[in-house]
């Protein structure tokens, strides 16, 4: 049975995702594949990664979908430089050693056990989750921001970057329920966006050049009409 989100998908989006699935299945490697779905906040990474997961699974290969958002640092670490700090956003948001230990290293080695969740950002507390064993036939699809930072870049067998203008992502951030719940009013979201999130992303661009280094650069300003740049 086709997942509901695939039934609702535009033809252009489906064609692009099918091409990416073909690209992933063409990778010659003994062991699991690691795919990064990178992009700025509100670029559409979660939706894109879920659809990619669903299409990959239709070809009978096990697929694990994970998000860097499940490896946040505690709030005391994230905001140690201040809630408006772009440096704090880029350097302190995530627990990368734990992400590597729990998830990326087992998949890169092709053996061992992994966890896909470590921290609940909304409730600011650690999370216990099931431990599973890596299979040589697995495909890990990881979505999130900053996935091509220097400490993570070498993990990926395929790197996707969803290119979206800051104007578009600001509009999407204002409309997202989770941003309203965490930050507050529209004006507060805009203020945080311009002080912390956008300049934090620009720090990432300067250090990692993710658009240039991605294997596939995708314009995702229109959810229904993405295209390869």
Give the structure's gist in a few sentences.
The chain has 229 residues and is an alpha/beta fold. 44% of the residues lie in helices and 16% in strands.
How many helical stretches? Answer: 10
* Whole-number count of domains: 1
Terminus-to-terminus distance: 32 Å
CATH architecture: 3-Layer(aba) Sandwich
Strand content: 15-25%
Element pattern in H and E: HHEHEHHHEEEEEEHHHHEE
Q: Helix proportion of residues, in percent?
A: 40-55%
Globally, the shape reads globular
- Structural class, from helix and strand content? alpha/beta
Layout of strands and helices, then pairs:
Layout: H1 4-7, H2 11-25, E1 33-39, H3 45-57, E2 63-67, H4 75-78, H5 86-92, H6 96-109, E3 113-114, E4 119-120, E5 125-126, E6 132-133, E7 139-143, E8 158-163, H7 166-175, H8 177-183, H9 186-208, H10 210-213, E9 216-219, E10 227-228
Parallel strand pairs: 1-7, 1-8, 2-7, 8-9
Antiparallel strand pairs: 3-6, 4-5, 9-10
